[in-house]
Amino acid sequence: MDEFYEAPARLSASREVAASKFHIEKFLSSVNKDVLDEVIGEMFKKSELPPSQESVPLAVDYRPGRKASGWHKEGVININSAKFDFNDNLRKNFRRLLSTYVHEYVHASAAGPAEEETGFKYLSPEGRIMHPPINDGFTEIIADYVYEEYARRTGETARLGQKTPKRTIRGYIEERADAKALIEKIAEDAGVPFDVVLGAYIRAYFSRDIASFEESLTT
User: Fold this and answer.
1) How many Å separate Cα 102 from the centre of its chain?
2) Per-domain boundaries in the chain
3) Helices 173-190 and 194-207: crossing angle, nearest 10°?
């Protein structure tokens, strides 16, 4: 993967857009999807759930006016190339890129075939499907584990780091803290270990059924 860390020459604005998309697609094409599926598949198996969908298409868009680095919609992972500057600190950008991709991959793994709705959700008074902020916080907790296991199993910890990049880069700081605090509170009130509640949350998240979470705590 050394070639991915060679800084490109400074280009014109239009060529930078094309170059950014090229670097993103080139880097993500090198990601070992089998390892990602293996890690997530083990989580499904441990939760006694059927395997996730087989493949998740990727699209790279240039959306300078959009805050998000990536999103999952209609069964496709979208990466916003406007959020990655490949003329500055390539190693940091590729780590951010992979962590963004893994975050959206976890979302996609929790969705049904061609569904946008992932993880925990509820209906608004207007009938719209909404996600509580804690949904992304919990996605981050799962994505951290997947990222770190990916780096370890592929032997890429030297380049990707042993820990997932800090979310000061990508947001979800409060959401992640709230998700962790909720798990800790439930574990304390129920008198069970943190990992037990975390496991129940994982099952509920991937099954898209909050009732399974509540049932897991009482069985």
Assistant:
1) 4
2) 2-218
3) 120
